[in-house]
Amino acid sequence: MMGTNAGPVSGLPVLKERGQREVFCGLTGIVWLHRKIQDAFFLVVGSRTCAHLLQSAAGVMIFGEPRFATAILEDKDLAGLADANEEIDRVVARLLARRPDIKMLFLVGSCPSEVIKLDLTRAAARLDQQHDAVRVLAYSGSGIETTFTQGEDTCLSALARELPFANDAADQTEDELLVVGALPDVVEDQFQRSFDALGIPARFFPPRRAQALPRVGPRTKFLLAQPFLSETAATLEDMGLTRLAAPFPLGIEGTRGWLGAAAEAFGVPEATLAEHVAPAERRAQVALGRMRERLEGKRVFFFPDSQLEVPIARFLSREVGCELVEVGTPYLHREHMAEELALLPQGTALSEGQDVERQLDRCEEAAPDIVVCGLGLANPLEAKGMTTKWSIELVFTPVHGYEQAGDLAELFARPLVRRGRLRL
Questions:
Q1: Which residues of 370-393 are buried (b: 16+ CB within 10 A; e: fewer)?
Q2: Least packed by Cβ within 10 Å: which of 16, 73, 277, 313?
Q3: How many Cα atoms occupy the beta-carbon half-sphere of 174 within 13 Å?
């Protein structure tokens, strides 16, 4: 099934597609979340397939003892012949006895645990009472979700409910900023220095330590650092926090708009912001100048995969001169994407959801210079002679902010260079 939506978004009609999908599951988010929250542990309640996914996706990046594992549901669990809750209690007790460094434990739901209606939220509440030194939470990382980045969204939504809350003005005497979304430490440090220089009291969520959850309250404003956090944003808004509308901090334009939204909300003069960002913008322009020579005029086709597609497309179009053939995204949050959509070129083909066969047909007919897609589509498309970029690499790699703008562009230039060398 497919069709256009009821109306255009920022003047751009959106093609809605509902069919076969080709995406990773939300368990993939554990790969970067376990590195971000350094004293947390992620216990997936799932199958051997879940375990293989995590081992193959994250195992090559682990040099110490990992902080994730899988409690495997056996056939007797799936058939209802064993009490899965008793098994979870036993596994958790053994894990915490062996790893006293764990301060927060996430029980992560999977397709198998959800199919048998295993209530991990209730299990987490029970275990939280049993183990005083550890906070136990639950969230869904199921592959039934729209796309793999929703694992972070459901995790942070669950964690947001644990944020200490200032109920009145006596507890929160000034406006504060909360930056929401897991960022590499190097990027977080860069943004923290910018907010400090601008006089904006800023905290980051998730924190690097589970016990360092930032306090929030009715005077807390938040900026989304990632475009796939719709459930987390709704949770924070329900708690009384205010979201600042902004583009996402990808490239020069996005970062300036993102910092500018915070500056405006906290009364920082535009001249002060411009003076602060000028050196970083000059460095980014130099880095992008080198990449623009390789990317200008290249035609790009986005398959829906990470929900990063719209801001990345805006960056490629406006800052390095790429042409957008089609920008597909698994889910288009109209409100969160309003500033990004307004910056896309008129006539940009947007699609929401996936019908992979139809999209493959459109992609082959368009014959773009580069295709941004998931791992499951990349090899077949490469075999057809197309140049691809793995969209998951955009999540694993530091790409936010001024200092990473050149690196972001290089991620797209690199496969084109590789293809050119192979043709020699």
A1: bbbbbbebbeebeeeebbbbbbbe
A2: 16
A3: 8
Contact by Cβ (8 Å): 319, 325 = no
Q: Where are the beta strands (DSSP E) in 272-349?
A: 299-302, 323-329
Tokens of 380: 């077949």
Helices 356-366 and 375-383 meet at what angle, rounded to 10? 40
Q: Is 154:140 a contact under the CB 8 Å cutoff?
A: yes
How far apart, in whole angstroms, are the C-alpha atoms of residue 118 and residue 112?
A: 9
Specify the higher pLDDT residue, 59 or 273.
273
- Residues 30 and 18 sit within 8 Å (Cβ to Cβ): no
Q: What is the pTM of this model?
A: 0.92
Backbone angles phi, psi at 373, to 5 degrees: -155, 175
Higher pLDDT, 47 or 287: 287
The single-letter code of the amino acid at 133 is A
Q: Give 324's DSSP letter.
A: E
Taking only the tens place, the pLDDT of each residue in 380-411 is: 999 999 999 999 899 989 999 999 999 999 99
Whole-number Cα distances in Å, 414 to 140, 152, 241, 248, 403: 35, 28, 41, 23, 18
Confidence of residue 4 (pLDDT cuts 50, 70, 90): very low
DSSP string, 192-248: HHHHHHHT--EEEES-SSGGGPPPB-TTEEEEESSTT-HHHHHHHHHTT-EEPP---
Domains and CATH numbers, the chain: 2-21+292-423 (3.40.50.1980), 26-145 (3.40.50.1980), 176-274 (3.40.50.1980)
State how far the Cα of 128 lies from the Cα of 134, in Å rounded to an integer. 7
Nearest to 39 by CA among 151, 133, 117: 133
What kind and span of H or E run contains 153? helix 150-160
